[in-house]
Design goal:
InterPro entries: 6-PGluconate_DH-like_C_sf, 6PGD_dom2, 6PGDH_NADP-bd, HIBADH-like_NADP-bd, HIBADH-related, HIBADH-related_NP60_sf, NAD(P)-bd_dom_sf. By secondary structure, the protein is of the alpha/beta class. It is built from 14 helices and 9 strands.
């Protein structure tokens, strides 16, 4: 029997994930700060809750997909007292390991299990159940959420029992994505100035030195330079880069490339483009 779920956070990523769970027969109680986002999910069979605490009251698994550390911590403060012992707090958000550890400690005092499950993939991948899911936390709790993980993703990667580890891996992978966006934007502008067809260059790249999906996906967006609905907002990307830098510094490591990419992201944000997809970097660099 599938575990009952409380899902909190129906943004660009949370919405398609929750939709998939409902469509696959899970009992899902939903909470979002913007109630209008619930409408279609209720039609599919989801259940609305007026408060986060009401959403989690009878859930075996609480899933959060929220924007940052502060949002996750705020929700945790509101729901922990309402959770039953044995509940799994499944955190899909991109946050720091220190935040995850603090949440795991709070959960442990109430007999609740914290499992980190940040995801790799854009909204279309979430809708198609093609996410890669990074896991860390208690092995028994991971086993309990295995049906949920299988329902929303194509593959999972287990990084062991420490609650913060998967979140650190997520920050490292996002850092790599953003440096790829920077590199592709610079190369495509160089091609443009040299009179080289950018689509042809991308095709060459994808069939020679770079064949990974991230190059194809972001390369296509950068070449097209069109508006991207439900994209990876530059403001959120900048937050992830900041967290990656802070995590690296705490470990005694450095991410020099992050300084360059963050400077460009912050310029975009200052120009009012913080809500636009990171692939808009090429347009910013051209200007």
């Amino acid at each position: 029997m599938n575990p009952s779920i409380a899902f909190i956070g129906l943004g660009n990523m949370g919405y398609p994930i929750a939709k998939n769970l409902i469509e696959q027969g899970f009992t899902v109680s939903l909470y979002n700060r913007t109630p209008e986002k619930l409408r279609d999910l209720l039609t599919l069979g989801g259940h609305a809750a007026e408060t986060p605490a009401a959403a989690v009251a009878s859930a075996a698994v609480v899933m959060t997909m929220l924007s940052d550390d502060a949002a996750v911590t705020t929700i945790a403060d509101q729901v922990l007292s309402a959770l039953q012992p044995g509940t799994v707090f499944l955190s899909l958000s991109t946050i720091k390991a220190e935040t995850a550890q603090a949440l795991a400690d709070q959960c442990r005092t109430r007999g609740v299990h914290y499992v980190a499950a940040p995801v790799m993939g854009r909204p279309p991948a979430a809708a198609a159940r093609q996410l890669s899911i990074l896991l860390s936390g208690d092995a028994g709790a991971q086993a309990r959420v295995a049906p949920i993980v299988a329902a929303i993703g194509a593959r999972c990667f287990d990084f062991g029992p420490e609650p913060g580890t998967a979140h650190t891996v997520k920050l490292m992978l996002n850092f790599m994505i953003f440096t790829i966006v920077e590199m592709l934007s610079e190369v495509m502008l160089m091609a443009e100035k040299a009179g080289i067809d950018k689509a042809a260059l991308l095709d060459t790249m994808l069939n020679t030195v770079y064949g990974a999906p991230v190059f194809k996906n972001y390369g296509t967006l950068i070449v097209q330079e069109s508006e991207v609905p439900n994209g990876f907002a530059t403001a959120l990307a900048n937050k992830d880069l900041r967290l990656a830098q802070e995590t690296a510094a705490a470990l005694g490591a450095k991410l020099p490339l992050a300084e360059l990419v963050r400077a460009h992201f912050e310029e975009m944000i200052a120009a009012g483009k913080g809500d636009k997809d990171v692939s808009g970097l090429i347009t910013h660099l051209r200007k």
